[in-house]
């Protein structure tokens, strides 16, 4: 019995794609390797999520498991081994989509030390590396870590800046990060109001100001994709398609 039959996934289900993301081509932020972070819990879920994303017209997925020392102690081997299993499952189900893996690195003292000591880091492509922080307080090592990454030849991408309360309230920090050339990656779901109205408004502001370099689904489960399908009714759905994004070059 195929994985999708096992979980009852049907082509004529309520999950018929209502959203066209073919213009984006590549999703570079998601949590689709099963059982290693707060994303897909098992292979059945992973395959179903990827099938649905493929149905939105995406040609490539670069999935990004969390690496967060206190909670998700992943490393390149764990992630690459998980990716290999996902690829085999997709092949068995006849799902033809390119899938690669990087990571979403949590900025803390341990990550800072790893960067300083040249630990192996997984990148989105070439030198592009995805980093995140806590949502409430600015990390003490934020600027130092970004500087260290740059000194090591990486181009930092700040994941979902629209969700950080400390950044929303600190206009000077926003400007400093932009001036430093830090890339901003927006979660598509932020434009739907999925997280909060405040996050939605900040996301729209960043789009209006042309601050966004990359877009991602940050997909964790089916609830994310159910809400993502409402994106086409957002007044920003057409606007984000005019942005000068790096997704299509991934």
Automatic annotation (TrEMBL):
Reactions catalysed according to its record: O-phospho-L-tyrosyl-[protein] + H2O = L-tyrosyl-[protein] + phosphate
Xref: InterPro entries: Caps_polysacc_synth_CpsB/CapC (IPR016667), Pol/histidinol_Pase-like (IPR016195)
Leader peptide range in chain numbering: none
Enzyme class: hydrolase
Keywords annotated in UniProt: Hydrolase
EC number: 3.1.3.48
Source species, domain of life: Bacteria
Pfam family, one: CpsB_CapC
Gene3D superfamilies for the chain: Metal-dependent hydrolases
Family: Belongs to the metallo-dependent hydrolases superfamily. CpsB/CapC family.
Name of this protein: protein-tyrosine-phosphatase
Protein species of origin: Belliella kenyensis
Lineage: Bacteria, Pseudomonadati, Bacteroidota, Cytophagia, Cytophagales
């Amino acid at each position: 019995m195929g994985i999708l039959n096992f979980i009852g996934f049907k082509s004529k289900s309520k999950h018929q794609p209502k959203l066209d993301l073919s213009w984006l081509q590549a999703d570079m932020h998601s949590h689709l390797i099963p059982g290693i972070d707060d994303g897909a819990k098992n292979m059945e879920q992973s395959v179903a999520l990827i099938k649905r994303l493929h149905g939105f017209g995406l040609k490539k997925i670069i999935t990004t498991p969390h690496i967060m020392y206190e909670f998700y102690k992943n490393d390149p081997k764990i992630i690459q081994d998980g990716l290999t299993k996902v690829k085999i499952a997709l092949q068995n189900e006849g799902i033809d989509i390119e899938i690669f893996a990087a990571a979403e690195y949590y900025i803390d003292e341990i990550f800072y030390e790893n960067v300083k000591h040249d630990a192996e880091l997984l990148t989105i492509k070439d030198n592009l590396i995805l980093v995140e922080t806590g949502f409430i307080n600015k990390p003490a090592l934020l600027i130092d870590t970004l500087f260290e990454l740059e000194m090591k030849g990486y181009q930092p991408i700040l994941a979902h800046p629209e969700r950080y309360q400390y950044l929303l309230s600190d206009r000077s920090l926003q400007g400093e990060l932009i001036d430093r050339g830090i890339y901003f990656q927006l979660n598509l779901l932020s434009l739907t109001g999925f997280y909060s109205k405040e996050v939605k408004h900040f996301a729209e502001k960043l789009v209006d100001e042309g601050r966004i370099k990359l877009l991602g689904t940050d997909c964790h489960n089916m609830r994310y994709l159910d809400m993502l399908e409402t994106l086409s009714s957002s007044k920003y759905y057409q606007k984000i398609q005019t942005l000068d994004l790096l997704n299509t070059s991934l």
